[in-house]
Amino acid sequence: MRTTGVAGPPGKVAEMALSASVWSGENGVRKRLGLHAIVTLFCFLLVPFAALAAELPALTGRVVDNAGIIDAATEAELVQKLAAFEQKSSDQIVVATIPSLDGEEIEPYANRLFRAWKLGQAGEDNGVLLIVAPNDRRMRIEVGYGLEGVLTDLHTKLIIENTMVPAFRAGDFAGGISRAVDDVVMVVEGEGAELEARAKRNEQTGISGMSEDDIIFFVFIALWAVLFVGGIAMAILPRIYGRKLGPGRYTWLGMTFNYNQRSGSSSGGWSSGGGGGWSSGGGSSGGGGFSGGGGSSGGGGSSGSW
């Protein structure tokens, strides 16, 4: 006769069944513990990425100055300027400042903020976000899809490098932001060629990236160097290359130089004998909360630092 199942004494069969049940239970526990471990590890790995995502401020108006770098007068002027521009063109520009990015790169942060605030009009995506994080010395101009063909990456880069960076290095955050907004408006209104021409002029004159104080200091040093070096040259060169007219008197380059033999000083003038001459010597805003209906930005724009 054929038999099926497990043959053996009843006690042995019961022991084998119990062992199988225990093994099955332990295997289930191991699987559950393994699943819990995987989930815990996954959550643990997500913590650093969550920590790098800086908090987004609320949209309270056209200027959200959470970093406190824009004075009240400039902020009021900006709000009025941006409101008038939006009413005229329907394009929406918002200025935001935050103290720090908390370790996040400014590009993804600006894009998240742009989308969260839904800048621009519905169906147009014609928004622009100008954001500054002073503690990280970073700034960005984020451009919505609808304006990328007008306010190009080149234009935003020129605005950052030629308008914002020099002002920020001089400590003039409010002025730099205000002038950058003027540049954005100018380009969006179709005057991008003027921005490019101005950048080219600055490059040709060598003052691109220099603040007004830097230029004044440079001119002062250059003038001092000309006077100092020129004075020494006029005290020495006539004696070497000039024609001696008499004791302590030389003529050179159409001028006559009289040297005091005892003091070593000199005076010069035109050969006609006229007076004068050369003497050497040593020597968060109002306006309420608002939002457009846009918010689509593919990362158009530019970033910079100072």
UniProtKB/TrEMBL annotation:
Residues 63-185 form the TPM domain. The keyword ATP-binding does not apply. It comes from the Bacteria. The chain crosses the membrane at residues 33-54, 215-237. The keyword DNA repair does not apply. Keywords: Membrane, Transmembrane, Transmembrane helix. Residues 268-306 are annotated as: Disordered. InterPro entries: TPM_dom. Pfam families: TPM_phosphatase (PF04536). PANTHER family: UPF0603 PROTEIN YGCG (PTHR30373:SF2). This is YgcG family protein. The lineage of its organism: Bacteria, Pseudomonadati, Pseudomonadota, Alphaproteobacteria, Hyphomicrobiales.
